[in-house]
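Handout, section B. The chain below has 233 residues.
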Amino acid sequence: MSSRNIAANCRKVVCIGRNYADHIKELNNVRPKKPFYFLKPPSSILQPGQGPVLQPKGVNLHYEVELALVMGKVVRDLREDDQRGAIDAVDAYAVGIDMTARNMQDEAKKKGLPWTTAKGFDTFLPLSNYIPKSTIPDPHDVELWLTVNGEARQRDSTALMLFRIPRILSEISRVMALEPGDLVLTGTPKGVGSVGLGDVMRAGVRVEGREVDEGGIEVGVDEKGGLFAFEET
């Protein structure tokens, strides 16, 4: 399956927030007692070679590298201790960059408003190609990394997740069914920061120190045209 198949088959993108302790600290957030999540629209997916991330006018644009789960089965009311059921429900993996309009998200948090706009712009989810499930024997033991203009920004192990995949899928599936083709982003490690026009992001995943070729992302940043310009809500 190519990245184009991932985008074509995706009906929703569910994103886990605050799943790495050091990332919580760097943004001065409160550590959650259980997994919480938000949605990105499938229209935010940016496939390899499809073009740059587009920075809207007035937006402080941040990157967040994440391991993505490509769901292969319908999941409802999964028990949090059903590790086999959780992993069996995953069809494949991908690397994603959850692009965020940070100033818009900060305003939304202060005012108790949804994050949808801050997370949902077109091109705000660059994805790698499909990573076969057999390539990642243990998704809780891989290294995610991201660079900006060749400078290392993020590099950490998924072993640092506060909530592992069975708990994540259990929490989501109690509320909404996960369906084949849906994406679940499992959270970002520390090191998030801003990018601007002309910057180039590269990201990927390593298994036992070996780079996974299918997991590579290289994407630039350009200016978004159109009518949008950030204004305070």
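Note. The longest strand covers residues 90-97. Compare this with the example in section A.
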